[in-house]
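Structure first, sequence second, as always.
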C-alpha cells in the first residue's frame, strides 16, 4: 500500500539528479524525492534539497518511527531503485547539520545493504551485508560508510525512506 502511494502520489516528485564527481557531470543511478519540516535545506553533492512540509501519510509514518526509536526526525530523503542496475555507491551521510542516527525503511523488493563496521574511518575494515526485505527498518549511524550495490539478480522496484534529523 505504501509502495503504491509513493509511486503514484502527486505529493511525491521523483527526479534523477545530475551532479559533479571529479569535475565531470554524472546522472545519479537512482531517482530521489524528499520532504521535511518547512524551511529546511539538506545540501549534499553541492545540490540543495529545500522542504515545504510533510504529506500526511509520510508525517504519520515519521511519527510512528520517532516514537519507536525515541529520536526526532525532521527530514526524509527517499531513493527509488527501479531494478538491480540502480545503486548507491559507498558513502557517508556526514554533511554539516546531520545529527543523530538515520532510520532507513525499505519498501518493495529485497536488496542487499552493506555497511563498514570499522572504528577507524580512514581504513577499510569489517564489512557486513544484510538483505533488507519489504518493511525492514534499519537504525544506524550514517557517518559509517555504507552502500547499496548493483546486482545482476532480477529484482523489482525498491524504495528506501531515510529519516534524518537536521540541526543547523
Amino acid at each position: 500500500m505504501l509502495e503504491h502511494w509513493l509511486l503514484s502520489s502527486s505529493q511525491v516528485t521523483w527526479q534523477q539528479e545530475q551532479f559533479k564527481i571529479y569535475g565531470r557531470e554524472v546522472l545519479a543511478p537512482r531517482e530521489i524525492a524528499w520532504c521535511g519540516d518547512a524551511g529546511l535545506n539538506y545540501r549534499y553533492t553541492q545540490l540543495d534539497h529545500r522542504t515545504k512540509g510533510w504529506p500526511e501519510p509520510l508525517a504519520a509514518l515519521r511519527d510512528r518511527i520517532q516514537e519507536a526509536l525515541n529520536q526526532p526526525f525532521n527530514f526524509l530523503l527517499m531513493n527509488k531503485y527501479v531494478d538491480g542496475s540502480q545503486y548507491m555507491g559507498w558513502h557517508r551521510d556526514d554533511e554539516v547539520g546531520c545529527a543523530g542516527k538515520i532510520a532507513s525503511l525499505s519498501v518493495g523488493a529485497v536488496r542487499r545493504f552493506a555497511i563498514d563496521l570499522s572504528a577507524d574511518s580512514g581504513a577499510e575494515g569489517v564489512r557486513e551485508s544484510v538483505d533488507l526485505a519489504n518493511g525492514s527498518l534499519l537504525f544506524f549511524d550514517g557517518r559509517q560508510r555504507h552502500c547499496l550495490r548493483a546486482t545482476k539478480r532480477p529484482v523489482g522496484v525498491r524504495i528506501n525512506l531515510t529519516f534524518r534529523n537536521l540541526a543547523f
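Margin note: The chain is about 10% helix and 45% strand.
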